[in-house]
Specification:
The chain has helices at 10-23, 33-40, 59-70, 85-94, 106-124, 154-164, 173-181, 191-203; strands spanning 2-6, 26-30, 47-51, 76-80, 98-101, 128-131, 134-137, 142-145, 148-150, 170-172, 211-216, 220-225. It is of the alpha/beta class and 227 residues long. The protein has two domains: 2-123, Rossmann fold, CATH 3.40.50; 126-225, Winged helix-like DNA-binding domain superfamily/Winged helix DNA-binding domain (Arc Repressor Mutant, subunit A, Orthogonal Bundle). The strands form three sheets. The protein has a five-stranded parallel beta sheet, with helices on both faces. It has a four-stranded antiparallel beta sheet with strand order 6-7-8-9, covered by helices on one side. Helix 6 packs across helix 7 (173-181) and helix 6 crosses helix 8 (191-203). It is elongated, with a radius of gyration of 19 Å. The chain starts with a strand and ends with a strand. The modification 4-aspartylphosphate is found at residue 51. Residues 2-117 form the Response regulatory domain.
């Protein structure tokens, strides 16, 4: 495994690099965003660890560039001293897969990196989810309805595939936050509700399609078959 580590605070970087070496992780450290972007042109990494505040551009801009021009599926762990709900949601909505608040903790960092890699490897498996007119190609992140591709964001796709992979089960908002965004349930946000609503609309989920998404009060959502 190889990590791309973007951090301009050299003392912080020295500490985290020491952890990487202790864990047996290969890594490349970058103190400037452009240096990382240049390296991504010819090097593959298994995960990127990005800081928010950087000298040449913000970590948020780095996420947008990585997703749009370099590696759409590279797992990104975003780190910052910013800890408001709005900051966390903004980073996740732009494409970060997980968010850690500074100061970083050694064991938590290792656990989050391991969880991101497991999710990434699981999504790369050659697996299809098929129910009625709906088909989800997990390896290519493509959703089809009656054989026609549907334009969806990555997060909408993951929410949809999670629902269709758990038909008949109640999925709590905390479960979806942890599974799709990799964040704990103590974040009070309507992010899940917004994405479920978009999934309903994008896929045309309705009794006529043979399915419905039922809101379970104070619990979450359940995708049900409609006979």
């Amino acid at each position: 495994m190889k990590i791309a580590y973007l951090e301009d605070d050299l003392e912080q970087a020295k500490m985290v690099i020491g952890w990487f070496e202790e864990f047996g992780y290969a890594y490349e450290h970058f103190s400037r965003t452009q240096a990382l972007l240049n390296r991504l042109r010819d090097e593959d990494f298994d995960i990127a660890l990005l800081d928010w505040e950087l000298p040449d551009m913000s970590g948020l801009d780095a996420i947008k560039l990585i997703r749009s021009k370099y590696h759409q599926d590279l797992p990104i762990l975003f780190c910052s001293m910013r800890d408001t709900e709005a900051d966390v949601v903004q980073a996740l909505e732009l494409g970060a897969d997980d968010y850690m608040r500074k100061p970083l903790l050694r064991i938590e960092l290792k656990a989050r990196i391991s969880a991101l890699l497991r999710r990434s490897q699981g999504m790369q498996e050659d697996k299809m989810i098929e129910h009625g007119p709906y088909r989800f190609d997990l390896s290519n992140k493509v959703a089809l309805v009656n054989g026609e591709p549907v334009n969806m964001t990555d997060k909408d796709f993951e929410v949809a595939s999670c629902l269709f992979d758990n038909i008949g089960r109640i999925l709590s908002r905390s479960f979806l936050l942890e599974t799709v965004w990799g964040i704990s349930s103590d974040l009070n946000t309507r992010t899940v509700d917004v994405h479920v609503s978009r999934v309903r609309k994008a896929l045309g989920i309705s009794p006529e399609s043979g399915f419905r998404v039922k809101t379970i009060y104070q619990h979450g959502y359940r995708l049900e078959r409609v006979e």
